[in-house]
Amino acid sequence: MVKKVLEITAREFKYIFHSRRLMLILIGVPLFYIALFGIMYSEHVVKNIPTAVLDYSSTALSRSLVQGFRDSEKFDVVTTANSEAELRQLIQNKIVQAGIIIPPDFSKKIKTGKSAKVMVVVNGTNMLYSNAVLSNANEIVQTISVGVSSQILQGKGYLPEEALNKTLPVQFAIRIWYNPTFNYLNFLLLGLAATAIQQVALMYSAIAFTRERDSGILQELLQSGYKPVHLVAGKVLAYFIINMVTMNLLMLECCRLFEIPFRGNVLQLLSLETAFFLCILTLGVFLSIVCKNELEATQYAMLVAVPSFLFSGFTWPVDAMPPFAKAVSAVLPLTYFCSTLRDIALMAPGWQVVLPNIEVLGTASLVLLPASVWALGRHYRKFQQVESRSNTAAG
After folding, report:
1. How many other CB atoms are there within 10 angstroms of residue 154's CB atom?
2. How far apart are CA 215 and CA 221, in angstroms?
3. What is the pTM assigned to this prediction?
4. Rg (Cα) of the chain, in Å, rounded?
5. Residue 238 and residue 107 in one domain
């Protein structure tokens, strides 16, 4: 028994070592993915968070506080707002991720020995941004506060309550928009649903033609008068309908069963889903046509599917990734779907946020669909040439 087992083991090793592609997938790909993941998280912390300032005080003291945020590597003060409504619009349009609101009586309260609150507003749909803003804003405010109090208290004595107010004259308050309770279900579940549906859509579309080609059915269909465009479009449409139904059932489950809020526009949601599934399915069909067999198509589909969730920017912001990881993220369809899906559900963004992602996915579909038709036509022409030579030889 041991001998037979070892013979089978040796035979399997021989097969693996003689297949470069299989060797690459079994050994090289896991090492490559771990390297990619390490690169993606190499920054360790989220830096240069786009921030807007709403300064109602406009005094030397308030400008000093704003300068503290400008000097921090964690924040990037990119613009100013004139009202809370404008600040909300900046966050909603994803121009900034955080805002600093300084009240009108900021300097006056501090100079009269009272404490003044600084409001920090943050987009709570991405919890990594939220947590970074919470910890770093508090650190900056407290540093400024101690510096101010040391100047005020120098050479003076106060009662304990007065001393406490003057030791920390600038107090810190936070307001979380769109996910105020830091609900991890709100943060993660929609992304996991999007990843799961991508996996199913890509894997099944990636074997749509290999299966029929191996069994000879594809040749029969082409000989029966069906053109490559008919076959490609028909298969894409079938999988498109199934996946659209499944995705919206998933959305219904997330919102009804797990009580994830949906504040967005249904037309935006359906438009994004349409662009995404057309992109994923045309990619899968293209792989199914150009790959030699079902196993090869599945392997290439996995190369796209496996890193998608981490590199999509859903959990770790794309802005915080190093250039190489950003490049990987830019070529993955899930990048343009995952975060936008969550934004539509939790934040109800404008079309100016959603449309660029739809355009990228749509453009990819417009490239992949004719490429699939061309590849299938090329396969059919080769098959016809083989048949013609066989008939000539037989004659």
Report:
1. 7
2. 12
3. 0.69
4. 29
5. no
